[in-house]
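Sample pair:
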Amino acid sequence: MSVISINPLVRSILSDTKPTKSVICSVLAFLEAIEEDVDNSSGSSSLRAILATEVSANGVKGQGSRAPNHLKKFGLPWENFVGDKSGRKTPQAKIVMPRLVEHLVSNGFEAAESDKKKQLLHAVSEPFRSMLGLSLGPIRVTPAGKTAAAAVESILSQAEERGVFSAIAELLVGSKLEICLGEKHSAQIREQHKWENGHDSPAALGDYRIENVAVEVTMVQGPDETHRAKANRITATGTQECWLIVRSDRIKAWQDYIARAPSKYPGMIRCYGICEFIGQNLTETRWRSTEGSLDPLQAVVCRLNELVEALGSQFLPAAHVELAE
């Protein structure tokens, strides 16, 4: 199995902060803010002054325009980084950017000439751009000797290293539903696919809605009140089911939490670990496709790759999955 190791510089700057798309874009936006200051005809400011003016509790100012502007300089795809359509904030910037500033200071940034400053900025930028999947190869997994669930776990582990974990989880679930349910529901599911799993409308009844079931994909680290409340709202009439697809290593915590939490119709709320959900047939016989594939995992991954190409071309190198023999 090939596992992507996070660059040591990236690791030192991010520390225990997850390399999500939002966090990486905030770093690129901050580097762009510094370079804008370097290009200022009145002379460059101190890094700490830029830090104070450009980073707030909500993230880096102008992140939605600065990140794509930074990518354009390197001839990289940038269209999906224009603006912040999800309304996502990046409060981690307040933690990460001071470490980035200290790195630049320790490498003589303040005393350097303009050209040297840009070289330093671009050197920091390169591994972060790679973490966006703009120069990484595909995710590679060798299923031989593994259960289907273990192969999925390997895919998700590599996706998390690359900062596309939630997106791949979302599309894996959608692909599984589309493959397993067959023609009866495939067109309906196809209309619901989306690249990012985050910041859904509070009124939305699940990431995927099929018949009387709302399938909610949540890759948070543990049980949370937001998703429990959403599951209760979905099942409030006693006629609608909610399937919570969660991290497999947290399934027991979720099941215990749901069992303890008050719910009018607790039997209508079900939890599934994502690796097992993708790796096995759906338990609902009324939904099981009669057109079973000889290799269901291969069929799901093939559909995932089609979705990645259609929905997230700028992530294609990092999100494409290869099942090696």
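Residues 139-323 form one domain.
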